[in-house]
Amino acid sequence: MKPWFKRSLFGLAGAALVAGSLTGCGYRHGGWHNATEQDRAEFRARMVERVSSKLELDATQKAKLATLGEKIQAQRAALRGGGDPRAEFRSLFAGAKLDQERAKKLVEDKTAAIQAGSPDVIAAAADFFDSLNPDQQQKVRDFMDRGRRWGRG
């Protein structure tokens, strides 16, 4: 692979993980942290359908996109861990001083989760992107350049 492509994939995977973790921390009552696995699966299926229609994907490409969505969701779940990330972060500031040891442990745990799951996410992203024809790849690049969601302007 070319170096710029590897950097792009790492950047994409990193951005997805950061966005997912921030999204997970940012939602409140009734948000995604309360969603069932079935709700998440339905959302992924809708996103696969939306992206598939925009890119005009064939069945194989669509399956690879679905796999990528599943890998990203699994990585997001691993990054969140078993508890409430907001409560975990707030607890660092609960005492008279910042709990530095616990903060370091939190960063180490999140970093380990990213390192453990990133190869699968990167491989799935590469598998999907490499399966696209040049026109479809250009549509993906254009989408990333715009910084907007498909179907929203």
Commentary on this structure:
The protein is mainly α and 153 residues long. The chain is 76% helix and 0% strand. It is built from 6 helices and no strands. The chain has helices at residues 3-26, 37-55, 59-80, 85-91, 100-131, 134-146. The longest helix is centred in the last third of the chain and has 32 residues, at 100-131. It is elongated and about 55 Å long. The two termini are 33 Å apart. Mean pLDDT is 79; it is low at 26-30.
Q: What does the secondary structure layout of this molecule look like, with pairings?
A:
Elements: H1 3-26, H2 37-55, H3 59-80, H4 85-91, H5 100-131, H6 134-146
Please tag this protein with its features.
single chain, about 150 residues, mainly alpha, elongated
Secondary-structure element sequence?
A: HHHHHH
Mean pLDDT: 79
Largest sheet: none
Count of helices? 6
- The general outline is elongated
Secondary-structure class: mainly alpha
Helix content: over 70%
Number of strands: 0
Radius of gyration: 17 Å
Could you write a compact summary of the structure shown?
This protein is mainly α.
